[in-house]
Amino acid sequence: xxxxxxTTKPAAKAPKAAAPKxxxxxxxxxxxxxxxxxxxxEPAKPAAKAPKAATTKAPKAPAKPKAAKAPxxxxxxxxxxxxxxxxxxxxxxxxxxxxxxxxxxxxxPMKDAEGxxxxxxxxxxxxxxxxxxxxxNGAWCxxxxxxxxxxxxxxxxNSVKVVx
Length: 164
Known about the structure:
By secondary structure, the chain is α+β, with helices and mostly antiparallel strands. Helix content is 44%, strand content 29%. The chain has two domains: 2-77, no CATH class; 79-163, Immunoglobulins (Immunoglobulin-like). Strands 2, 3, 5, 6, 7 and 8 form a six-stranded antiparallel β-sheet that branches. A two-stranded antiparallel sheet has the order 1-4. The longest helix is centred in the middle third of the chain and has 33 residues, at 46-78. The protein starts with a helix and ends with a strand.
């Protein structure tokens, strides 16, 4: 690790040393021979002090905002809230099961909020194609209002919801 740190510091020193060279270039123009001495002094004196503070401060400030922005952008468009609805007898026990919850028949309970037999459940789904079924009082049912169905390994149909 110490080797990596030393390698990183000289790389940062080169750009910082270039800026101080411009004022010293006028001194180089007068005596031709001292140019070699100035070149040897620059990496040892000015570059060793100034770039350490600059390289430590510059990467830290930009790194934090970039890291904070990336997850926020990725989290927002990756899921969409989808509300599933089905009509069943008032007082029924209704659940939503699908490819998005491992087909667990009790993981997503649906609620009849108005007491009129319309059960709903809202799920955050990622983009893509999702198969699902309703479990009403223990019986698996495809969504009768969904026009996109596929056959499954059980010899029945699964409803399909595509999230764009």
